[in-house]
Amino acid sequence: MKLSETLLAEFQQEAQGTRKLLALVPFDKADYKPHEKSMTLKSLAVHVAGIAGWWKECLVSDVLDFSVGDFKPKPIESTDELLAYFDGLMESSSKILSEINEDEFGKPWTMRNGEQIYFTMPKAAVTRTWCLNHWYHHRGQLTVYLRLLDVPLVGMYGPTADDANN
Q1: Tens place of pLDDT for every residue, the chain, 166 residues?
Q2: What residues pair up with 64 in beta bridges, in sequence order?
Q3: Which of 20, 78, 92, 104 qualifies as a cystine partner to 154, CB 3.0-4.6 A?
Q4: Is 154 among the domain residues?
Q5: Cα(130)–Cα(128) distance, rounded to whole angstroms?
């Protein structure tokens, strides 16, 4: 199996749970944050949704330069908008993963801000670290925010304490 096929299968599988989680975000509590240093619920939810689109930056491009371009979060004001944004990113990223040439994964990718280089690593490592592991990390944070707001959680890999059978 090609790396692109393996990553696409994992991405699509994990997207199902991520979408269920994003559907729970209560926008009437958008400004909630569990600590003064934390992101707001809205910022975190938009970030979780947005990471689904990072495959373009990490596979189609060779460099992400924060000094070039507009990196402002998408203005989202409702759960429906959040899900539509996520669904669009899922579709475009799935297309990229289905069409990418396998040679692309061995190429170096650099994250920088103008002259300051944060790191360079093979695109295969970037997709695992930034497109998947980073996504899971923030998705986990989102479950904590929702739990603290008493939002019943859905299972990612099985039942949760909120399921009726527990």
Answers
A1: 999 999 999 999 999 999 999 999 999 999 999 999 999 999 999 999 999 999 999 999 999 999 997 778 889 999 999 999 999 999 999 999 999 999 999 999 999 999 999 999 999 999 999 999 999 999 999 999 999 999 999 998 989 898 866 5
A2: 111
A3: 20
A4: no
A5: 6
Q: Is residue 163 part of a domain?
A: no
Q: Are 146 and 25 in contact (CB under 8 A)?
A: yes
Q: Angle at CA 90, nearest 5°, toward 107 and 130?
A: 40
Which residue type sits at 139? R
Distances (CA, A) of 23 to 26, 32, 88, 132: 8, 17, 15, 20
Domain assignment present for 103 = yes
Domain of 134 in residue numbering reads as 3-148
Residue whose C-alpha is closest to residue 75's, from 111, 54, 39, 50 = 50
Maximum pairwise Cα distance, the chain: 55
CATH code for the domain of 12? 1.20.120.450
Query: Are the CB atoms for 74 and 85 separated by under 8 Å?
Result: yes
Tell me the H-state helices in 23-159: 41-51, 54-55, 79-99, 123-126, 134-148
How many structural domains are present in the chain? 1
CA atoms within 13 A on the CB side of 72: 4
